[in-house]
């Protein structure tokens, strides 16, 4: 036998041994996955992929990695599997679950909208509503959550996500029965916080305080607890306690919009205008479309005689809320102080008109109430 033939036979034998080992690793990976032995499954699939780089193995390894908490690696494995089998809805759904767990909500929305075009599964809408909620696209979240709730109104999770979305949209009357029903079926710290926030929105501060104090007793560092406590204290005119809560909220999250906004307002009320402006500038950066923040900043600009700075702020407020009567009066003053007398006169007239309309509406409401109360 020649040396070349001997080497060829040895090489062939080595390859067959490696192939057999890889095949055995594939089987061991499947067995470990079925037994929820995630680390062993991952190790086996890594060997398996050397000879069998299929979408199924990449997908199964993604499952193991996700359970191990290695989310970025799981996403990469699922992505590889999906690139090899783009129409596999199971792989795409599993990928979406991991994306949401990693707070990659925009990417999750892309995959979920694709899944909805290819199939009808209520789980797609459940995750889509959650993703839109975390992206603060509340009107889209509500539209999807309403579809889910219509199909499964008995599920407390569906009640909670829809109620939470309504709360963020300031539709507190619609939110309250959904959140209350969800908590009656399955209580949670997050649910009780959302209930308290809803009660704050309804100005039912005594009930909100009871919910918040109960939550603070069991979870004193629960996210957004201090923000909700601060809003409750603002509603009950306990400004010193409110400031303490909002300052604590900012220690936990310096980019908390509500805490920055309310601290800005409270500091303005206290006459500390420079500090108020600092908080409101952060709030404006976080939510540049907030007319409430612009109104507060305009108040400060007028008090500091920065009339030119007040003009664009007030113009934006009126564009966002044409019924904000006080903004017309403030803008009239800003125009007057910057030499725009004709504009100032126009805004003053609009202010008087808005005030008259407001008085007429109030009188009509009082008249209707009186008629309803008559026996």
Q: What is the overall shape?
A: elongated
Estimate the helix proportion, in percent: over 70%
Query: CATH architecture of the domain at 203-288, please?
Result: Alpha Horseshoe
What CATH first level of the domain at 203-288 would be assigned? Answer: Mainly Alpha
Radius of gyration: 30 Å
Q: Main sheet?
A: none
Q: End-to-end distance, in Å? A: 117 Å
Strand segment count: 0
| Run of helices and strands | HHHHHHHHHHHHHHHHHHHH
Low-confidence stretches: 3-16
What do the pLDDT scores average to?
90
The CATH topology of the domain at 203-288 comes to: Serine Threonine Protein Phosphatase 5, Tetratricopeptide repeat
Structural class: mainly alpha
CATH homologous group name of the domain at 203-288: Tetratricopeptide repeat domain
Measured by DSSP, the beta-strand proportion falls in: under 5%
Helix run count: 20
Structure in words:
- The chain has 375 residues and is an all-alpha fold.
- Among the domains are: 34-101, Serine Threonine Protein Phosphatase 5, Tetratricopeptide repeat (Alpha Horseshoe), CATH 1.25.40.10; 203-288, Alpha Horseshoe (Serine Threonine Protein Phosphatase 5, Tetratricopeptide repeat); 289-356, Alpha Horseshoe (Serine Threonine Protein Phosphatase 5, Tetratricopeptide repeat), CATH 1.25.40.10.
- It is built from 20 helices and no strands.
- It has helices at residues 3-34, 38-48, 55-67, 71-84, 89-101, 105-118, 122-134, 138-151, 156-168, 172-185, 189-201, 205-218, 225-235, 239-252, 257-270, 273-286, 291-303, 307-320, 325-337, 341-373.
- Helix 2 (38-48) packs antiparallel against helix 3, helix 14 (239-252) runs antiparallel to helix 15 (257-270) and helix 15 packs antiparallel against helix 16 (273-286).
